[in-house]
Design brief:
Length: 139
């Protein structure tokens, strides 16, 4: 298994972060690694979506968990790997919120492919979380 995690805190409401997360069609506004997104169903567990990162092929993903206002988990599968990304919001009180992104790569090829593709997948997480929090604070 390969893992990577980024956490950041800011003076922003948890609800403002959630509103940005719950709108996959708008993810490109704060995540440069997201191009076109098509959501097949509601933003709820069991729905699938496709995402086309700039300059890359379309990726099919599934929302496996969605806890309104708190968290969601998306999963993408490829030959020998499963890429699971947890998106977590912690309301710290006094107007502060902590956001965590954690990606796990599992499967038969995880030990071989994780160290190669993991940094490609997660390399911009610090910037993504910072932009997310900045946009949420401006809302």
């Amino acid at each position: 298994m390969w893992e990577y995690e980024v956490t950041a805190e800011a003076e922003v409401s948890a609800q403002a972060v959630w509103q940005l997360w719950a709108d996959p069609l708008g993810w490109h506004a704060w995540n440069d690694g997201v191009g076109e997104v098509e959501l097949n169903g509601p933003f709820a567990a069991g729905s699938t979506f496709t995402m086309v990162p700039p300059g890359q092929d379309k990726i099919l993903m599934t929302l496996t968990e969605v806890t309104e206002g708190r968290a969601f988990v998306d999963v993408a599968e490829g030959p020998g790997i499963v890429v699971t990304t947890h998106h977590l919001i912690d309301d710290l009180g006094d107007g502060r919120t902590r956001v965590t992104y954690r990606t796990e790569i599992t499967g038969d090829a995880a030990d071989e492919l994780g160290p190669r593709i993991g940094p490609e997948i997660c390399g911009d997480f610090e910037d993504v979380v910072a932009k997310l929090l900045t946009l949420a604070a401006a809302a």
